[in-house]
């Protein structure tokens, strides 16, 4: 009865880890959750208050398919204040999370049998959105030498007749790697030279711990940029995100958005408006600073335990570590064995790299620093015991 595509869509391995972690917790075990890519902080109060106020005004209906005008304007203002870019609010498409934007973008750009190029390792859902529109992801394996990102040379080498464009992420999941302006320029030039489209997932921008992040829009005014209120803005469960699209794409996007979603959640849209107020930004920046401190604790601790982290990630809240040296010692067979064993016996929940990379994921593990510093120190001690055995 099921359509063929369902069999081709893999389950998220992280969900299996999370389910087992929750089952152990229900048995009374103390579990440290470092598996799911979600801030452990609740949404900040000004955003919650704006959502409640909107409900009390009885704003409970559908909105315009592309989003309420005030929110599209507020997002355009954000590009001006944070990136110095003039973006017309008409080019902002409000979506049900970045997930909604990724689905719209796939439906808009990809015909049956066509592909978008992206790195292996990547955010696992990207390839599934493409499968749903009968297209495919075209993976380019990269390692720490390429800082887990594409570059102009790789794009040239791997471009095929059915390649529509390139999907990059900065900062990236699972690696936390950020693209510099120079890298973005190199990528944009390679894509343009082949008449392709550049799509940038910038959902983790705002969560960077070094120099400020550059948007693909700074180097390519025609790029599709996907972003979200989930991560820096801390609104995962509200399901609200956005895309900046070139003018030529807007009528098509509007048609697709009308049919697929009718509109994005109305309460979330009104709540998200409060995210840009200066007092909200100050609170969100404090949280980013907390993530920065956690990153330092976890990075130093993992290196001390001999995890192989060739290049320090500068964004998101992930560390992607190579565990080949532990596998070579014979204690664990692969990353899934490692993650399930560490969960069962030491109560630390981690994500195996197999979610992100079919080729190399068997010897990588993703750590999410979505725990307070004390929890991270506890996790490091437990890992130390596991490795010392
Ligand atoms: C790289 C990346 N893109 C998109 C998403 C989807 O985010 P959302 O739909 O919550 O905005 C995620 C979620 O973890 C992600 O890591």
Structure description:
The protein has about 400 residues and is of the alpha/beta class. The chain has two domains: about 150 residues, Alpha-Beta Complex (Aspartate Aminotransferase, domain 1), CATH 3.90.1150.10; about 230 residues, Type I PLP-dependent aspartate aminotransferase-like (Major domain) (Aspartate Aminotransferase, domain 2), CATH 3.40.640.10. The strands form three sheets. A seven-stranded mixed beta sheet has the order 2-8-7-6-5-3-4, with helices on both faces. A three-stranded antiparallel beta sheet has the order 9-12-11. The longest helix is centred in the last third of the chain and has 27 residues. The radius of gyration is 21 Å and the shape is globular. The relative contact order is 0.17. The mean pLDDT is about 95. It binds pyridoxal-5'-phosphate. The site of pyridoxal-5'-phosphate has 13 residues, from helix 5.
CATH architectural type of the largest domain? 3-Layer(aba) Sandwich
Give the helix proportion (percent range).
40-55%
> Sheet with the most strands?
7 strands, mixed
Structural category is: alpha/beta
Bound ligands? pyridoxal-5'-phosphate
Shape, please? globular
Query: Secondary-structure element order, as H and E?
Result: HHEHHEHEHEHEHEEEHHHEHHEEEH
Mean of residue pLDDT values: 96
User: Span from first to last CA?
Assistant: 49 Å
Estimate what percentage of residues fall within beta strands: 5-15%
Q: And the CATH topology of the largest domain?
A: Aspartate Aminotransferase, domain 2
Order of strands in the sheet with the most strands? 2-8-7-6-5-3-4
Domain count: 2
């Amino acid at each position: 009865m099921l359509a063929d595509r369902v069999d081709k869509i893999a389950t998220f391995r992280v969900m299996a880890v999370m389910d087992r972690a929750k089952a152990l917790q229900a048995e009374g075990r103390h579990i440290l959750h470092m598996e799911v890519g979600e801030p452990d902080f609740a949404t900040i109060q000004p955003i919650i208050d704006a959502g409640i106020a909107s409900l009390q005004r009885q704003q409970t209906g559908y909105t315009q398919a592309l989003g309420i005008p005030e929110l599209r304007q507020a997002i355009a203002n954000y590009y001006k204040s944070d990136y110095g870019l003039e973006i017309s609010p008409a080019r902002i498409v409000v979506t049900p999370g970045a997930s909604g934007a990724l689905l719209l973008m796939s439906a808009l750009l990809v015909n049956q049998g066509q592909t978008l190029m992206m790195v292996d390792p990547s955010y696992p859902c990207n390839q599934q959105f493409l499968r749903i529109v009968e297209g495919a992801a075209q993976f380019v394996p990269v390692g720490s030498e390429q800082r887990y990102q594409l570059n102009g040379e790789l794009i040239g080498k791997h471009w095929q007749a059915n390649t529509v464009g390139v999907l990059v992420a900065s900062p990236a999941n699972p690696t936390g790697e950020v693209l510099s302006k120079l890298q973005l320029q190199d990528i944009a030039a390679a894509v343009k030279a082949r008449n392709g489209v550049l799509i940038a997932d910038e959902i983790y921008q705002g969560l960077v711990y070094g120099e400020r992040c550059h948007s693909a829009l700074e180097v390519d005014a025609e790029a599709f940029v996907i972003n979200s209120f989930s991560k820096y803005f801390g609104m995962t469960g509200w399901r609200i995100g956005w895309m900046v699209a070139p003018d030529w794409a807007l009528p098509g996007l509007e048609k697709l958005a009308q049919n697929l979603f009718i509109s994005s959640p109305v309460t979330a849209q009104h709540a998200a408006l409060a995210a840009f107020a200066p007092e909200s930004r100050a609170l969100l920046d404090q949280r980013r600073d907390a993530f920065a401190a956690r990153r330092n604790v976890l990075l130093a601790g993992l290196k001390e335990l001999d995890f192989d982290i060739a290049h320090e990630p500068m964004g998101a809240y992930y560390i992607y570590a190579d565990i080949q040296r532990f596998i070579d010692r014979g204690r664990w067979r692969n990353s899934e064995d490692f993650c399930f064993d560490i969960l069962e016996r030491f109560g630390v929940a981690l994500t195996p790299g197999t979610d992100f990379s079919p080729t190399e994921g068997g010897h990588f593990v993703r750590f999410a620093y979505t725990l307070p510093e004390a929890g991270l120190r506890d996790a490091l001690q437990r890992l130390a015991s596991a490795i010392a055995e």
